[in-house]
What we know:
By secondary structure, the protein is of the alpha/beta class. It is built from 13 helices and 15 strands.
Amino acid sequence: MPPINAHVSSLGGSPIRALLALAQDPNVISFGGGAPASESFDVDGIGKSYQRVLEEHGARALQYSSTEGEPELREAIAARMTHNGLHSEADDVLITSGSQQGLGLVGQVILDPDSIVLTENPTFVSALQAFALSRAQFRPVDTDSGGLVPEALEAAILQYQPRAIYLIPTFQNPTGVTMPESRRREVADILARYNIWLIEDDPYSELRYDEWTMTPISADPRLRQKSLYLGTLSKVLAPGLRIGWIRGPQEVLDTLATTKQGTSLQTSTIDQLAAVDWLTHNDLDAKLVPVRAEYRRRRDAMVQGLDAVLPDGYTLNTPMGGMFLWANLPEGFDANESITDAVQAGVVYIPGAQFYVADPRPSTIRLSFVSNPVETIAEGLERLGTIFR
Ligand SMILES: Cc1ncc(COP(=O)(O)O)c(C=O)c1O
């Protein structure tokens, strides 16, 4: 076989995806992936949207279209961000095929080989995968129960001269932690003083189980020319649609668009039109009311159930939204070792060590509480109890 790119072939795949492949077995209960509850999908409504799009737009829906995205969808996304405290115009938005494509494009466009990217530690593994394609290097910034520690951020900027910082400030993956408003302002104050990119990844903020909203850090006007904010319909509508977006400064959106041309030309025309049709004919906020209530129930069931399952001395983050519980088992537990037994017992969690860019803690685990109904959660926890107790 002729050679292939040495750097890319040296990168491993996501260990999480490999674990999730195991969870395809219908007898296995998965607390693994970040998949929304399938019952929450509006199958009828989305079906009607596809039908209406074909009736109303005909061939347009099946034709090539712009790299930046369908104008109506960019408009609707900008309106939604504005509604959520991040003032945006349609021109500020580049539609992507899921925010994962957005992360890949951002990595290609703003990073050079050996550029340093600061991250929360632990953080979302697939963002690391995306940035690693550009040969980025990662440096952790200290976090606590309020997310990134501002003093540590400033120290890391001075020490490492990073090109960018990648943050998930709301219902972080994997820890579920949310950065309070006051700290967002402190982080913005620091970022405003330095010439680095903020990559703000925000897939989960609409899955909140309390009555507050958090303003994106990117809403600070001083960061307008240095922030790239990523959103997605995956967690609120359906991940199979593959509709995400990047909001950023015009000059960089142009380069992101030419980079997208080089990899995928465009996001599916019909999928974009169906998404905006759904958003026009339905009320996303109303749709999310029962979803949030059910996810809250599932979160509470898992938090309560885990007490009888996890070994004495564990700690657990109970997030105010999103999809994940993050547990730290007592010193000496190795979640990587016990995952094989767990799969044999018919239950999957994600060992936490793989989310770290430095100093991995083998005693940590991530559990998704949204994907299974309460009864299945109870059954899965019982199986988990045979491993941890
Ligand atoms: C933090 C974070 N960013 C991005 C994504 C990618 O989402 P999608 O490509 O489906 O929009 C995910 C999915 O789990 C995620 O957890």
